[in-house]
């Protein structure tokens, strides 16, 4: 199906600024060379520019890339601008981002890391 990003196993965001003039080849090269990730894996890669009001999403569908572009008419994305080059986010964090919220919600209930739990 054309652009069915719901099948992506992982979601990555490129923290900081990305040159929004880049197309499929430029974004795929950025994923591979700068982030040392495989752009052909079943993952969604998100990029945001300086204005914070538009983003691009790159997704490999198995037979070709899909490039999605979103421009907000009002408001801005709360895009992380920290030093991390790339960050993996959950589906919930992706939803927050698309709704104009920060992906770091201080009051959200966080998933428990079961490896650090003790048995009762």
UniProtKB/TrEMBL annotation:
Pfam families: TnpB_IS66 (PF05717). It comes from the Bacteria. This is Transposase IS66. It comes from Dehalobacter restrictus (strain DSM 9455 / PER-K23).
């Amino acid at each position: 199906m054309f652009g069915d990003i719901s099948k992506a196993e992982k979601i990555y965001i490129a923290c900081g600024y990305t040159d929004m003039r880049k197309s499929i080849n430029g974004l795929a090269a950025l994923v591979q060379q700068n982030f040392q990730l495989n752009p052909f894996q079943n993952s969604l890669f998100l990029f945001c520019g300086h204005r914070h009001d538009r983003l691009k999403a790159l997704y490999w569908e198995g037979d070709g890339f899909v490039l999605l572009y979103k421009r907000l008419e009002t408001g801005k994305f709360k895009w992380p601008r920290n030093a991390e080059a790339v960050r993996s986010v959950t589906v919930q964090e992706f939803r927050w981002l698309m709704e104009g919220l920060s992906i770091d919600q201080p009051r959200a209930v966080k998933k428990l890391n079961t490896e650090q739990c003790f048995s009762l």
